[in-house]
Sequence to fold (340 residues):
Amino acid sequence: MKLQFEKNVDLLPHNTFGISAIAKEFVRIDKSAHVEEALEYLRKTKINHLVLGGGSNILFTQNVDALVLQNRLFGIELEKEDDMHVYVRVAAGENWHNFVLHCIRNKWAGVENLSLIPGCVGASPMQNIGAYGVEMSSVLNYVEAVNIHTSERHTFSLSDCELGYRESIFKRKEKGNWFITHVGFKLNKRPVFHIEYGAIADELDKMEIDTLSIKHISQAVIAIRSSKLPDPKILGNAGSFFKNPTVDLSVLRAIQEHDEKVPFYPVDENTVKIPAGYMIEHAGWKGKRAGNCGVHEKQALVLVNYGGATGHEIFTLSTAVMTDVKNKYGIELEREVNVW
Ligand SMILES: Cc1cc2nc3c(=O)[nH]c(=O)nc-3n(C[C@H](O)[C@H](O)[C@H](O)COP(=O)(O)OP(=O)(O)OC[C@H]3O[C@@H](n4cnc5c(N)ncnc54)[C@H](O)[C@@H]3O)c2cc1C
Fold:
């Protein structure tokens, strides 16, 4: 079937903030070969582009004067296995959490701490998704992508992807240049449990488990996330709106002079990470509402759409939060969410 290019499509159902934004053109890519066809169209029409997965890490502050390429490539393929590992190739449109559940059913370890993160597998390397002490970089093998400008197909190795804390080459140097079609994972047959982070150990205690498994960890993570984070189907949001800043020890010392209790996590000898949520909460923003949007009452890192908010309103709120934190802590917060 030929590709169907739709015009003037409202992206409201396609982003978890629940923001209305009109895409000039919209096309659903559900076959790998369709990528090249859509890219040819892009080059012919010289229209701008946006690749969209589940829309759970994007804020639309204006209409999208571009062709939206909605990634709907499906399939999970076991490539090979050895004593220690399984190698899996996953199409970019697969739902991330469904993939995690698939791994747990097959006893493939490594992604259980990343349970219930919304969005598609194809977006997971974009910001090296992470949660509860694990980042996807620990299981990434490669990324297959098509160059938007030349249609060249390329495989990025783990090191090519330049993954960091909520960072990758696809968010920086190569921003907007690639349509990710598949992600290769190297998962463990023998699990290494990560339960030291957040409330996982407490949650596991409540479950009264005899023999710990990756399924239990996934269940614990699901329980914690469901109690803390707003469900985008009920309250529009994109998870953590800001990154946790990494700062010099001298900055931490200066903060400690007026706030002894400020939490921090060592990154290396000279730098620490300070939770942005702590600073936002202590600056008085937790639960604050501004018109149709606000800062979530349980998790100060999350901005929410109470219904009918515009992206511009949410962006303005985020700027006010950033300015206030800068004034009170001297730290420049950075948005984690992609802004269009
Ligand atoms: C309730 C909630 C909780 C969350 N918790 C976490 C968390 O714990 N940890 C975490 O890291 N994130 C979290 N997020 C953020 C988000 O779920 C992830 O960043 C996720 O990977 C985004 O996937 P997506 O498919 O929705 O991406 P989208 O929002 O559709 O896109 C995000 C970016 O990736 C690009 N992109 C998407 N797919 C492709 C592709 N195939 N090729 C090229 N570019 C592409 C887009 O252009 C855009 O720039 C949370 C979000 C919500 C709503």
Q: What stands out?
A: The helical segments are 32-45, 96-105, 200-207, 214-228, 249-258, 276-282, 311-329. The chain has a mean pLDDT of 95. The longest strand covers residues 178-188. DSSP finds seven helices and 20 strands in the chain.
